[in-house]
Each structure stands twice: as C-alpha cells, then as structure tokens.
From TrEMBL:
<feature type="binding site">
    <location>
        <position position="91"/>
    </location>
    <ligand>
        <name>ATP</name>
    </ligand>
</feature>
<keyword id="KW-0547">Nucleotide-binding</keyword>
<dbReference type="GO" id="GO:0005524">
    <property type="term" value="F:ATP binding"/>
</dbReference>
<dbReference type="InterPro" id="IPR017441">
    <property type="entry name" value="Protein_kinase_ATP_BS"/>
</dbReference>
<dbReference type="InterPro" id="IPR000719">
    <property type="entry name" value="Prot_kinase_dom"/>
</dbReference>
<keyword id="KW-1003">Cell membrane</keyword>
<keyword id="KW-0418">Kinase</keyword>
<keyword id="KW-0067">ATP-binding</keyword>
<comment type="similarity">
    <text>Belongs to the protein kinase superfamily.</text>
</comment>
<protein>
    <recommendedName>
        <fullName>non-specific serine/threonine protein kinase</fullName>
        <ecNumber>2.7.11.1</ecNumber>
    </recommendedName>
</protein>
<dbReference type="GO" id="GO:0004674">
    <property type="term" value="F:protein serine/threonine kinase activity"/>
</dbReference>
<keyword id="KW-0723">Serine/threonine-protein kinase</keyword>
<keyword id="KW-0472">Membrane</keyword>
<keyword id="KW-0808">Transferase</keyword>
<dbReference type="InterPro" id="IPR011009">
    <property type="entry name" value="Kinase-like_dom_sf"/>
</dbReference>
<dbReference type="Pfam" id="PF00069">
    <property type="entry name" value="Pkinase"/>
</dbReference>
<dbReference type="InterPro" id="IPR008271">
    <property type="entry name" value="Ser/Thr_kinase_AS"/>
</dbReference>
C-alpha cells in the first residue's frame, strides 16, 4: 500500500492473518478460562484474576463518572478495587464480527504484559474473563495519555524539559522491549503512538497497549505478514509496502511521536488540507534546516525553557527515526543515549541542574 494513501487514514485497519497459529503468543483457550473465582488468586507472574462482580463494584457498574476514554478495544473506566487500589479498567466492547480479533488482542496483552516489568511500561494488575466478557485491569495513570496533554483536552501545555523527559522514558520502555532482557526475546510493540503513552502523576511516561505486539525470536529479524496492523500516521512505510515487520517499525513510530512532541501537532490531522494531513510529510524537509526549524516548534511551549541547540539535536534525531529505509534509522538504544545528551544540552544551556526535572 503506498505510504501517502496509508497516512491519509486515521483509524486502525485490521484484517485476517496467520497469527492465530503462532505458538509464541497465543495460549490454549483452557489457559484463560476461569475455573478459580477466588479474587486473591495470583497467576502468571502476578496478574490477578478478577470476577465480573469485582469489575462492576470497582467502577460503580461502569458509571459515566468513571469513564476515562474510548479506544478501538472498548471503553476505559477508573475503578477502585476491594484492596483500595485505584486502577483503570478496559472493557472489551466490540461488534460480534470483531470479537475474535478482540479476544486475540486480549490474550496477547495478558500474555506479554504480565511477563514484563519496567518503570516505563504500564503495569497490568489483572484481568477478568467471564463468558464472552473481557476486562483488563491496569495501574491508573493520573495524567492520561500524551496526545491529550499535547493537543487535546488538557489545558496546561507541557514545557520542553517535560517533553524531553517523556521522550526519554518512552525510548527506555521501547529499548527494553527491543532488547532480549524483557522475555528473552525482542518484542515489537507495533502500535506505538501518543495515545499509548500514558503519564503518571509526575509525568513519567509509560507505554501501554500490547495487544498487537509480536515476539521476534533470535535470528528472525523480520516477520512477514499479509496484514498490516497498527495505527495510521505511525506506519513504517517499509512495513506497509512490503509487509515486513521489524524492530525498526517501532523506531519509525517513535520518530512520529518525537515530531508530535516538537510541534504539538497530531500525527494525522484530518482538519488540514490533503497535502498537510500527515505530520511527517509536512515537516520532514525542514527538520535539518536550522534557519527554518523555528517554524515547526510548538508555539505553546515556553520560550524560556528550551535552547535552540537541543531543539536542533532533537529534530535531527526525529528525522533519522522517520527515514524511509528502516536500516538507516537508529536503534532504540541509540535513541536513549542521544536523548540523554539532548536533555543535558538543554539543561546546561539554560543553566539548570539536572535534578530540577527529577531525571533518573
Ligand atoms: N491505565 C490508564 N490510566 C488512565 N487512563 C487510561 C489508562 N489506559 C487508558 N486510559 C485512557 O483511556 C483512553 C482510551 O484508551 P485505549 O487504549 O482504549 O484507546 P486509544 O489508545 O486511545 O486508541 P486505540 O484503541 O486506537 O489504541 C486513553 O486514551 C487514556 O486516556
Ligand atoms: Mg491505547
């Protein structure tokens, strides 16, 4: 599919695949059935199994007051568990024809996320599977998703040091997934985007939504598929044109998020004219042009909190992440190193101590 066409669309597109037969990701169905209704039962690396009743109690029967947001899988509600813990509960709500896809995503999410532990990945607290109903229970992230903080409902716009901190946190999360240290096998997230970066009370970034993730066993540098999964605006052009998924597909999506952080614009903005809808196509040609770079900087950012040097370094990194040839993109480990340097450059340029922004 040509890149221009892909990027003109906003919503995720899914179709049939060979994924069902992949033994790495999908467990036998018996594994997911609830034979033990004890709410305190711990399974599978610490994920709790909840009953439907507990889900209803936690959210006051899914009242609108607890509604947090809606995505392709269903609605998300704030909830309080019997233990007093505040959580986010994602309720699967799909038309019958999409239930099988939803079930697949549910299983991958539980299977992968309950094996992972990293400060920049959202924690899965547990799940509920009751008949055909499915719920995922996550740690609650007080500041919602990154996109809403950049150009959505939230009033206070993030300053440059906070954006650098988010970029670095997200880079660390992805680098962890791509390394073998997570589950012994590199993992491609495949749906990395600004709504899947959640922010804690002190604006630490945590990556969420692993339902489309793919394990890449040793020696398998790419995975060929007939269906292209992910979200429009973030698709690696090489993946969309060849169907070959690599770790570098996440690097492309990461580059798009860097551009959102820099410009405060959306990855795809259907309110713009046909040639200006795609952020990468809109700004790519000026990212390495210091004279024109000021045109793309988010005007909502406080001028006193960024140096042009750090902006130029950041724009250069973003431009390399979104290169069409995946082999020319940096690795996520390189991105972490560069972003640390960019953060230091900005702090030094402004004469600020690193700890001002609670960096780790
Ligand atoms: N753990 C959480 N804590 C707080 N809010 C959350 C949490 N998880 C999700 N949300 C909120 O719920 C919204 C919907 O999330 P969801 O992941 O279902 O959709 P999405 O990421 O926006 O879109 P898509 O389904 O296309 O990936 C998010 O944008 C976020 O604001
Ligand atoms: Mg999401």
């Amino acid at each position: 599919m040509p890149f221009g066409l892909v990027s003109a669309w906003k919503k995720r597109r899914r179709s049939k695949s060979h994924d069902q037969i992949d033994p790495w990701t999908y467990k036998p169905v018996e594994y997911w059935q609830l034979e033990d209704q004890n709410p305190s039962t711990k399974r599978h690396h610490g994920s709790s199994v909840f009953t439907l009743r507990e889900m209803e109690e936690a959210t006051c029967a899914f009242t609108e007051d607890n509604f947090l947001g809606k995505g392709g899988f269903g609605r998300v509600y704030r909830g309080i568990l019997r233990s007093g813990e505040v959580v986010a509960i994602k309720k699967m709500e799909l038309p019958t024809c999409k239930e099988a896809e939803g079930e697949r995503e549910f299983r991958v999410e539980v299977d992968i996320l309950s094996r992972l532990s990293h400060p920049n990945l959202v924690s899965l607290i547990g799940y509920c599977a009751d008949g055909k109903r499915r719920f995922l229970v996550y740690e609650f992230m007080h500041n919602g998703n990154l996109q809403d903080n950049l150009n959505g409902i939230r009033e206070a716009k993030m300053d440059w040091p906070s954006r650098l901190k988010v970029a670095l946190g997200a880079a660390r999360g992805l680098a962890y997934l791509h390394s073998s240290s997570a589950v012994g096998i590199p993992i491609v997230h495949r749906d990395f985007k600004s709504t899947n970066i959640l922010l804690s009370a002190n604006f630490e970034a945590k990556i969420s939504d692993f339902g489309l993730a793919k394990l890449m066993p040793e020696g398998q540098e790419m995975y060929a598929t007939t269906r292209v999964l992910g979200t429009f605006g973030y698709f690696d052009p090489e993946y969309t044109s060849t169907g070959k998924l690599t770790l570098q597909s996440d690097v492309y999506a990461f580059g798009v998020v860097l551009l959102e952080l820099l410009t405060g614009r959306r990855a795809v903005d259907l309110n713009q004219g046909p040639t200006d809808q795609n952020l990468v196509l809109q700004v790519r040609h000026i990212l390495n042009d210091r004279k024109k770079l000021h045109k793309v900087i988010d005007p909502e950012m406080s001028r006193s909190l960024y140096t042009m040097e750090s902006i130029a370094m950041f724009a250069n990194l973003a431009s390399r992440c979104v290169r069409i040839e995946s082999s020319e993109r940096p690795s996520m480990a390189d991105c972490v190193t560069e972003l640390q340097l960019i953060f230091c450059t900005n702090s030094k340029g402004l004469g600020m101590a690193m700890h001002t922004f609670r960096m780790v």
